């Protein structure tokens, strides 16, 4: 398996103009769906994901299994408005590790949307849903519920174990979602509110291939819209 890390520097003004023109700007300003649409416009169905937009100063990071030459070739074909909004003139791509030592310690950061799909109804905030199912909801703490969920995600297929983890940021955000078509054949947009959390900590790598798959796939839902990208650093460097 091959994995590549790419970086570009979206232009905030051009991004806002493009998102507004295409009606892809969330009511609270989240750029996730607009960036998803821009990446798809530039790179096609194999657009890089998961990705993380870190703001105007740090830019956008994403993982892709497409080789650098193909990514650059696709970027060269992007229309001027897409290229400017994404900052493709500064596109940089490098190979990312896919082999990891069992027990290797790494620092990590990840932005996630801890939600659950109940048997009926729309997606729910995991904390609220858990509280409704609990006999003692007043004893539950949001961070603890989310951390338990996060540990389970890392532990799947023995990918990794969290040795330290804390919630670094939390808010409720609205993320644009496209639904079925209306009478005019146009896809309708919804912007449901949901949990938006950033976690930082230390992890211990488990099975190498499982950890590589976790990096490539991302964590949780809404991975195509700016959530779930696992950012790594040498241990104790957070």
From TrEMBL:
<dbReference type="InterPro" id="IPR010179">
    <property type="entry name" value="CRISPR-assoc_prot_Cse3"/>
</dbReference>
<dbReference type="Pfam" id="PF08798">
    <property type="entry name" value="CRISPR_assoc"/>
</dbReference>
<protein>
    <submittedName>
        <fullName>CRISPR-associated protein Cas6/Cse3/CasE, subtype I-E/ECOLI</fullName>
    </submittedName>
</protein>
């Amino acid at each position: 398996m091959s994995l590549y890390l790419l970086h570009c520097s979206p232009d905030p003004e051009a991004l806002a103009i493009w998102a507004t023109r295409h009606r892809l700007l969330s009511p609270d300003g989240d750029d996730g769906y607009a960036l998803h649409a821009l990446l798809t416009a530039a790179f096609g169905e194999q657009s890089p994901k998961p990705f993380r937009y870190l703001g105007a100063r740090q830019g956008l990071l994403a993982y892709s299994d497409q080789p650098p030459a193909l990514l650059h070739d696709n970027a060269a074909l992007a229309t001027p408005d897409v290229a400017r909004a994404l900052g493709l003139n500064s596109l940089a791509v490098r190979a990312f590790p896919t082999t990891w030592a069992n027990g290797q310690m790494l620092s990590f950061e990840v932005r996630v949307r801890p939600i659950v799909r109940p048997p009926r109804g729309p997606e729910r905030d995991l904390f609220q849903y858990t509280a409704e199912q609990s006999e003692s909801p007043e004893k539950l703490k949001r961070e603890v519920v989310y951390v338990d969920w996060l540990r389970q995600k890392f532990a799947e297929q023995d990918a990794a174990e969290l040795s330290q983890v804390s919630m670094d940021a939390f808010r409720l955000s609205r993320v644009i979602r496209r639904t079925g078509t209306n009478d005019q054949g146009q896809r309708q947009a919804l912007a449901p509110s949901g949990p938006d959390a950033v976690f930082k900590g230390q992890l211990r790598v488990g099975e190498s291939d499982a950890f590589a798959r976790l990096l490539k796939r991302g964590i949780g839902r809404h991975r195509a819209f700016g959530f779930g990208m696992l950012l790594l650093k040498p241990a104790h460097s957070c």
